[in-house]
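Suppose a colleague, Dr. K., hands you the sequence of a protein chain of 106 amino acids and asks what its three-dimensional shape might be. Before reaching for any lab equipment, you can write down a predicted structure in token form. Begin with the sequence itself:
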Amino acid sequence: MIATTTPTIEGHTITKYYGVVTSEVIIGANFIKDLVASFHDVFGGRSRDYEQVLAEAKESAMQELQQRAGQLGANAVVGIDFDYETIGQSASMLMVACSGTAVTID
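The predicted structure, expressed as tokens, is then:
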């Protein structure tokens, strides 16, 4: 399935619109990752653990989005957008929301 952030797909014509599809993934970061990240906050540098958690959440959201589009009969999703938010007590959970338009292309 083709998935893109653009509203069209070069070389293809959209022949049917199914509407907006969404997915949400909420993932927790554990205590150890929080502790390591706090050191990065103080001393600087990147938090590879958090980057990995974010990448996993994004990939899961994309897979779920494509699955939902496929269930509608779509073979592509256009106009994909991601939103990221921390939620929960102490902002200990990360939510990745993904949306796009399910379409059929030729």
